[in-house]
Amino acid sequence: MAFTAAYHRLGFEELRRRAARAYQRLKSCDLCPRRCGVNRLKGERGACRGGRDAVVSSYGPHFGEETPLVGRRGSGTIFFAYCTLRCIFCQNYELSHYGEGEPVTTARLARMMLALALMGCHNINLVSPTHFVPQILAALTKAAAEGLNLPIVYNTGGYENLETLRLLDGIIDIYMPDFKYTDPAVAQKYSGARDYPQVVKEALKEMQRQVGDLTLSQEGIALRGLLVRHLVLPENLAGTKEVVEFLSREVSPRCFINVMAQYYPAYRAREFPPLDRRITPAEYNAAVKAAREAGLRVYRD
To answer: Contact 172/214 with Cβ under 8 angstroms?
Structure first.
């Protein structure tokens, strides 16, 4: 059976309505949990530093993502500048902290999506999209009208406003959030968001409600569902056991999780021991064991 992206089933008129509703929220921006209330339509900047236009750092086929996204032809990745979090160990800090990139119109963003489809990519992978949801929805409306029919991947740090996620219901095919921490004090110290643990838990449940467990094509390519990323941190700062138990108990016992071993001391991490070192094999193996004991579908780097 041929694949039909969620946004095509939703319909163009509803897509336009969602985009218009999202733009209205820029007048007193509350797209993310920080709810800064600035008028981004008039150029005011809040915590994320995003303005009226989306800022794109780069786009193209990406082969460093999870295998179900990459397949043979790559994940069609669009990297957005800025972020709603302030992670002191961010490995893309030039983008998230310094805003490396250039403003783009919604028409140009739509052309990027269509170009990635022409390159043969398996999906459109939106990296750090939260603060640019209105612009993304407007661009997607244009691209879909011109024939785009690829799964949309919402690749996020997990710090999401439920109202924003509900605007995306019926549009996003694949949610790929991080689940970074379970301790509010740790979240505040390393990402400037004390409420992160509670926010991400509610967001994950909403994402699961919308798209369900991850489903793959016969070729093993992701088509729809939830894929959670969990970066293992030194000395269990991420709270892995609580993460996997929450996912199994309150999201889905069939949840697909990537237990990530790629941590290294980036950006300002060396100023914050124990984040000044890589994780040990024992720390990583303990995290994988916990995820498997929780019954999750475990993907390893």
So the answer is: no
Rounded CA gap, 53 and 265, in Å? 32
Domains, the chain = 6-300 (3.20.20.70)
Residue 246 CA from chain centroid, whole number:
19
Residue where the block lists tokens 């000044």: 276
- Structure tokens, 194: 């004390």
Alpha-helix runs per DSSP H in 11-161: 12-24, 67-70, 93-96, 106-118, 133-145
- The series of mean pLDDT values per 10 residues for the chain, 301 residues long, is 91 96 97 98 96 97 95 97 98 94 98 98 98 98 97 98 98 98 98 98 98 96 98 98 98 97 97 98 97 93 56
Q: What is the chain's alpha carbon radius of gyration, rounded to the nearest angstrom?
A: 18
Q: What is the pTM of this model?
A: 0.97
Q: Give the orientation angle of helix 133-145 with respect to helix 12-24, to 10 degrees.
A: 160
- Write the DSSP symbol of residue 247: I
| Beta-carbon count within 10 A of 233 CB | 23
